[in-house]
Amino acid sequence: MKTAIITSYFTGETYGLLGPQMAAMVIRENTSFDCIVIAVTRDDDKTLLKKALADYFGGARPIIGFSTLSGRRDLFSFAGELKDEGAVTILAGPQADVDYSGEKNWQDHPHRFQGLSNYFSFSLHGPVEQAIGLIQNLDQEGWQENPGLLYLNKYQKVIHNPKKSWDEKFLSKVTWDNIYRLKKSALVPHKITTGQVLQQIGCPYAARQKSIEIDYPAFMNNNGENKVCLPLKGCSFCDVAVDKGFYGALGINTVIDQILCLPETTDGRKIPFELINENPLPGLSALLGEAKSQGINLSQINLTMRADWFIKGDEHLRKALQLAKNMEMRIILTSVGFESFDDMILRNLNKGVNVETNLKAVRLMRQLKNDFPTHFGYLRNEGGNHGFIHPTPWDSKKTSDNIQKVIDRYALATDILPDHSIPLIIHHASALGDWIREIERKEGVLFERYDSIIGWWEESLSSQDCNCVIN
Q1: Are residues 326 and 264 in the same domain?
Q2: CA 271 to chain centre
Q3: Is the dihedral of CA 104, 339, 390, 347 positive or negative?
Q4: What is the per-residue pLDDT for 471?
């Protein structure tokens, strides 16, 4: 018996996918089903993929999970096709519950995202071990009681079972050779060169709720007077804060066990990996020390951080870099979430930092590169791709001038800014989704929906119903 997990991927990449690959291993080890991960790019021919799935499942009923889909309509539609042809399709991974159920109160507002319940047999939200009982009992009574399950009852109402809490015993192991790509009409093993290690679930910045005022979009605003007051956790654009909040850190033994699972390079070192922890510096030297004591040869750790926590962790990072130097490995700051260099935009993003904080982080990054030229990195050619969100709803000539002045004065284009900025993306379940809905209510206007994403630009604005949902 077999299952598979389909996930979004980028052409030409060789990175691992911790969530789906760990899920596949948990299913394989705790059920009577085999399970693989299939990484699907936008360029992959879905007809050939369907043939490859038919060959993989043989005569058995396909049971296919879909995870980390990145809002891709082609994968939603593909899941719907498979479901209509008799497969069991399961929406899982980040935001699986809200994407299955649909946008808030869509039943009363037809223009809103109506969810993906027509495309998937059901959804599973939360820890992967919830899939164990579900998959084993699909053909028996009681599967509807499975924790974390969302499904449509006979009245077409979404039933949402509470999810389980995280259990570390399912988070200590991952198999990295279970990911496949489509080649012609066959599934072939995909070799990865960068892995991931989970150390912290969620973000500490999302642990505390506060109320903030967010400006109307610049094209609707009257001298900055129109605002929406919202209670929120974390950055206003972050749907992960809504999905996971902050669970906490895993034990060091669990983290070391994950590192031990990583493949090795030809020189016997573990492949580079991203340490999933929004605030990794206080415990980084302890993790390196434990790896060294156990004889684990590391090559490179990649970090993603907030600018303020990077500054606060200066001494911790220097201590870790001394260890890295001794271990002949590298620590790469692959992404600092600067997002903007304008205070008004940072405030609307609820970043909790200002431009001066971002610039202090830039100065520290450059200083550390001077102090540890071989063992610390942050440059683009070292893997750096730092957060810069543009355009945003609040752009104006004034903000553009402010940002350009900062870019020029501090030479940010030379080593900090990415090759391409990322436009602000508003997921329907993020705090900015509430912001859009409140503007719609107050002003009697509608913003277009692009599946699970809400348009915020002037061209997406309409005073009449827009027929732009996929259900």
Answers
A1: yes
A2: 21
A3: positive
A4: 35
